[in-house]
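Pilot study result, target chain (421 residues):
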Amino acid sequence: MRQGEALGVARKVGSAYTRRWTVIPPTGGGQRWRSSVRCPVVARPLMFRPRPLVVDLAVAAGAAVADVGGAAASAAGDPRGPQLSVAGVGLLLLAAVALVGRRRAPFVVSLVVGILTALQGIAEEPDPPLRVAVLVSLATVAALCGRRITVVAAIVAVLGSVVAVVLAADSAVDDYYAALVPSLAALALGDAYRVRLDLAGRRRAAEVDRAVSEERRRLARELHDVVAHHVSVMVVQAEAGAASAEADGDVRAVDAFDTIAGSGRTALVELRRVLGVLRDEEEATSNEPQPGIARLPALVERVRATGLPVELAVVGEPRAVADGIDVSAYRIVQEALTNVLRHSGRVPTSVELRWVPGSVEVSVTDGGDGSGALGDAPEGRGLLGIQERVALLEGEVRAGPSPEGGFAVVARLPTEPVARI
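Predicted structure:
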């Protein structure tokens, strides 16, 4: 499968941090990636991040060992007291097994765990020093559910603990503290964790928004240079047309050309005024023309000089494209190569420029481990910029692990204007 056949549409829907990549079946087979909403943008994969189910199984196993072992230790420390029975072990194990579903139904799991441990506490069974399954379930409710459900869980935990202690045959005053204090502490810790996650999410969203705003300003500055060049050419041609018309004695044509030239000069003044707003105070104004596709070989040579083994391949017959496409293709390759240096290191990298009917495709594929930088801001700012460029030009983009290995950034830019009404 060619790299250009696995592309997705980068549509700007809402803010940048509410996009995600979803896989949809295209016509003709293969896979396509399309921008969607309501999910943090392209989360950076961690190399050794365990799956949630594996974590929940480990937590359930740990809770089972802690509760059953604690109850057995309590029975061994008091030979005259109640001894651990098969039924008691079964209740504790069932409570621990219920923790496997704590992410899907936190409140229901906490109720199930509370009922099972309450039955074990009411029966003539030794109590573990800490009921780990109960604490984990309550902390999960506070961490994953809202504040109202957390309050309900706290009330249920308090009432359940009181009832269990009252109904237990071997209860004492200290049992109230042993049942209530750890439960309330678990709820408090879970709630604090939830608040911390909310703050971290808002901070990441603000960083992504800031990165996208900076990239849009950069795009606006580049497009200003392109538009200003064409308007300047228009003014010069209008003035030349006015001079020619004046020589022919065509007064009406002279007036028309003068009006065009005046409008062009006014547009240039407004463009410079807008550029002054977009530029930072410390940013110097550069008269150097914007780089384009023709300067890709020089870019590759410059990057190769830093120690990155990179090769450039051109497929198809090059042709003239609009200035916006020209600049954006260069910037996409530049950002992708920077991404390779930053996140994959000095690994073999290939850059391909493919000319196809109606569009030009650029791809940068490295030979790393495929982790790349799908990440949160600020690490993923380069990819955010690529997405913004491609969305502005109504193109398609894919960024992620390559089927052949490594990390790939593939973008398709239309070389023909998209008609809009």
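One observation from the pilot: Residues 1-48, 374-380 have pLDDT under 50 and may be disordered. A full batch analysis is planned for the follow-on phase.
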